[in-house]
Input
Amino acid sequence: MMDSPLEGRDFPGSLPELRAWFRSDADCVDYLDWLRWPDGFVCPWCADVGDWGVVPGMHRCAGCGRWVSVGAGTVFHRTHTPLTVWFEAAWLMMASKQGVSALTLQRVTELGSYQSAWTMT
Ligand SMILES: [Zn+2]
Output
C-alpha cells in the first residue's frame, strides 16, 4: 500500500472517531473497498482495471464481466453481523496491543450475548 498508516487519515484514532467514520454498513464497504484497491479497482481474475460496478461493495469487471465482491475471501463475507460492529471489534483488537478480551468486546459493542462476542474473537 502506501507508507505507514496514519491515524486519523487511514484509520480512526479513537472510538468516537471510528463511530463518526462508519455510521452505516455502506461506509464500511467504502472503506474496505479503499483498503483493497487504494489505487482503484483491479480485477483479480484478469487484471483489468475497468469497472462497471453499480452496486456498493461489488465491482463488475469491464474485461471479463465477472462480479467481484469487496468482502469476498474476508471474514466479512459470510456474516449477518452488521459491518459497523465488525469494524468496532477489529479496531479494538488493533488498538489494544494485548488483544481485547471477549468480555471487553461485548461491553463496548453492546452485543446481545457473550457467546457471539466470543465467536467473533
Ligand atoms: Zn476481469
